[in-house]
Specification:
Number of helices: 16
Distance between the termini: 51 Å
CATH architecture of the largest domain: 3-Layer(aba) Sandwich
Structural class: alpha/beta
Largest sheet: 5 strands, mixed
Amino acid sequence: MKTIIEPFKIKSVEPIRFTTKEERIKILEKAGYNPFLIHADDVLIDLLTDSGTSAMSSKQWAGIMDGDEAYAGSKSFFRFESAVRKITGDKFIIPTHQGRAAEKILFSILGGPGKYIPNNTHFDTTRANIEFSGAEAVDLLCEVGKHPEQKADFKGNMDIEKLENFIKETGVENIPLVMLTVTNNSGGGQPVSMQNVKDVSALCKKYNIPLFFDACRFAENAYFIKKREKGYENKSVLEICQEMFSYGDGATMSAKKDALVNIGGFLSLNDEELAMKCRNLLIVTEGFPTYGGLAGRDLEAVAQGLEEVVDEHYLQYRIRSTEYLGEKVVAAGVPIIEPPGGHAIYIDAKRFLPNISPSQYPGQSIVCELYIEGGVRAVEIGSVMFGKYDKKTSELISPPMELVRLAIPRRVYTQSHIDFVAEVVIEVYKNRDKLKGYEITYEAPMLRHFTAKFKPVK
């Protein structure tokens, strides 16, 4: 097979600053051993997130110049609305400045004390917005998805049996909606099969519960369906997306992922009464319903990005570049979630550092060492991000997996950048016996991983 090349040419470049190992040790210490608090200029390869870090296309930049900044009824909104509706088929399209704003609006209306929101796996802001409303976020990931070393085509699936049991035990009246995250970010960027979408949808219809998608990486999920699920190999990615959304009642999306933009999002729905309530809250918190916290130019960029993201040449390159990094580190013995997901490689910190307990945050240890070794910024997805404290004993309750995510921005880094990242990861793995655990010296009550500070355990 011939080399899969980037389906684009580079038209503009941005220099990156090189630092020494000694400088990075001081920078990390000053940042409280939290890469979120490091100045971006001090980062060589930034894999903290794929959210809002994409390189936009020439047509997107052209759209920025063509954006209509009318306060109400902007032509850019109608192009945005048309692009979202073409993919989702949903009747009511509400723009927001990013995904968490859509979540905030939705859960402010449907959440609240005594309510429960099941998901295959909630990501951080989704969980935070649910819990902020007083509701409880519940993860019902399929069993194979909890085992990083086991290979399966659709490890992001919802456990259907657990979902039905949960509905029966909790009561339909206490479950305002069910969510499916595609792809499953916290579960390793793993895809959800169309069959699983159908099964979840059928179950929701049986109990008359709305189904919403967390659709941040819908196109990557559709590409995995095309490549791995029988009966979809000859369908276009757009057709697969349209079928997938047809089984739901709405979606939230951070356009900063699969819409290939730096800001933006939306909430899409089919329920007219719920849409009216959401629009009313949008006006209070985000802006008029035809701009929703975004400039017209941003609406144009999102609309164009939604056209570009379903291009199969782009998706082939995108998925393969992630897989390439996974293959290189696995060949050196580095334990990751296998097979690689769509947008990131997830290092299995439990197997990487079996000598460091979850209470000393092995993922944070790896994240810090990746920065010291090569200026690579990654993020912990484990007991720092999702750990909770027992209300009676104050002991840490850890999530099922301790992970480090290397999220690859779209259309930003070349193969040589990825080769460098692999070399850094492998070098840290070779010296893993020298790594130490960390303890938290400061944490916020919610979403603590963004601002927490740490110190090494002596």
